Amino acid sequence: MRIAYYVGLIWEYFTNYMKTRLTYRADFWVEVISDLLFQATNLIFIFVVFAHTETLGGFTEAEVVFVYGYFMVPYGLYSCFINLWNFGDRYIVKGEMDRILTRPAHSLFQIFLENLDPPSLIGSAIGLIIMIWSGGQLGLDMQWWFIPVMILMVIGSTLIYAGIYIILTSVSFYSDSPTGIIPLMVNIQTYGRYPITIYNRVIQIVLTWVLPFAFVGIYPAALFLQRQEMLTMAWLTPVMGLVFFTASLLLWNTGVKRYRGAGS
Amino acid sequence: MQAIEVHQLRKNFRIQQSRGGLKGALQDLFAREYREVAAVNDISFTIPQGEICGYIGENGAGKSTTIKMLTGILVPTSGDIRVNGYVPYLEREKFVNGIGVVFGQRSQLWWDIGVIESFQLLRKVYGVSESDFRKRLDELVERLELQELLSRPVRKLSLGQRMRCELVAALLHNPSIVFLDEPTIGLDIVVKSEIREFLKELNRTQGTTILLTTHDLQDIEALCSRVIMLDAGSIIYDGGLDELKSRWGSGRAVRFQFGKAVTAAELTAWTGGLPVTWTQESELVATALIPVDTAVSDLFSRVLGAAEVTDVQISETSTDEIVRQIYSSGSAEKPGAGGILHV
């Protein structure tokens, strides 16, 4: 009942997004294209690196590209549904949180809905294409379990993204001014799409347990590449997703109680 | 049943004390000093169902903070609140289904989409059935004459048009309590009186409880049977508007213009026995001051019977004036009367 309500809301907000966005068509395509160019430069970077070396942390070029393809899928979903970029400015400083809190749906969910960004989903689709293409180059045979496991892993990875960013955003409720921590995070999240074995031990631990960005790229992708050494980590992806997401919701729900509003 | 019950409600805000100068700014970076400020200071009141209550006070008196606690936006520092049988901040999602909120300074509608689409979206958010929605929308649209506005995007509406749409948006789910925070701010007289009429009718036909804050005392005079006045976070008056006026109003002044010259002695002789004070401007013009509990008609019958009157003006101490006096003295205690007035 409650789920049907929330799914219905996603659809309503999505159609409204489309209605407004399609009136500014040029803007829509500029956003899609700049998104894709950004991803393309990252891929080109991978090709440049492999022009100088055969393997990276024990991974071949096609494998790294495959990992990158996987990374794009949860990243696209995260960018579409969990867009907390302007939270501090828009909802705390300008006080739009007031309006959110007078409506009968979970506050965080409403904020997600108001900031839907469907063009990001194109990135997810392209990620899938890259996985299929580089998988073909690697001679990976499509197995029956790929699809359900892929869905499970992608959900896990997206929840990890959501968890980390919700935790960071909840800080806005506790600190007076918006913090500059998010740009730093955007930088760190890119580390997860390269073989974790290339980093030193401390960074590996951070990327696995503290800011678990390795679970949005290398670990789950390694499952499909059948890398035995990362098998356990790969299966931990949905678990980490649930743990981080639950923790972030708890922090958010406590944080909202500290909201002070803006103006008089 | 009581619609709103508030007991010993308090909200403290922690305000950062900034030190001046570069040196102070650097000190602030490491060790901040905070000061606790009570925006709302242990207030108590109850509002029965179906009442229209005005909530007034100067800027920063704590009106909006109270409204935000009553609507579940802010969590109180201490004290009890019950609105519609709920503690607002505890069961927020269930609770807000029964209330409507209009913030005059902030829009509830989506900027870029048509008004009707905003309404549809709200219908989904509040889970109102399509048939209930249609019925309610038709009534409201007809009452507020919004037919032509429905397909326009909100950003193209004038403030008056937008405010009427905001009212509809807040009422689509048929709430039993409506909170209005400065609903008439910035509106012209025509729209203001339309909105007042609408609110009065809503209260009469649906029994909706209304709590509104405003700086426009004509809103209060037109709508409210009861006023709660706040100053620096505390209630300084809670009672009827008439009571407030009779306590504070210094009576009425009646200015007469006579056809023939009159003397001061004649004036006092005509009104002998009535508590009247005369002031004479000239031989032909004099003003009588009478207390609120004396009928103007008594004065008239005496004066009109005795003299040739060419013109009469009656003026009353306006609510604005009364409230200004109270604001500037910071309490509703009339010299001589003790304590806060509860009527």
From TrEMBL, chain A:
Protein name: ABC-2 type transport system permease protein
Species: Paenibacillus hunanensis
Pfam families given in the database record: ABC2_membrane_6
Transmembrane segments annotated in the record for this chain: 28-53, 65-87, 108-133, 145-168, 202-225, 231-252
Superkingdom, taxonomy of origin: Bacteria
Coiled-coil ranges per UniProt: none
Keyword Transmembrane helix included in the entry's annotation: yes
InterPro entries: ABC-2_transporter-like
Keyword Ribosomal protein: no
Key words, A-Z: Membrane, Transmembrane, Transmembrane helix
Automatic annotation (TrEMBL), chain B:
MF GO annotations: ATP binding
InterPro entries recorded: AAA+_ATPase, ABC_transporter-like_ATP-bd, ABC_transporter_ATP-binding, P-loop_NTPase
SMART domains per record: AAA (SM00382)
ATP-binding found in the keyword field: yes
Domain of life: Bacteria
Record keywords, A-Z: ATP-binding, Nucleotide-binding, Transport
PROSITE patterns noted in UniProt: ABC_TRANSPORTER_2 (PS50893)
Protein name: ABC-2 type transport system ATP-binding protein
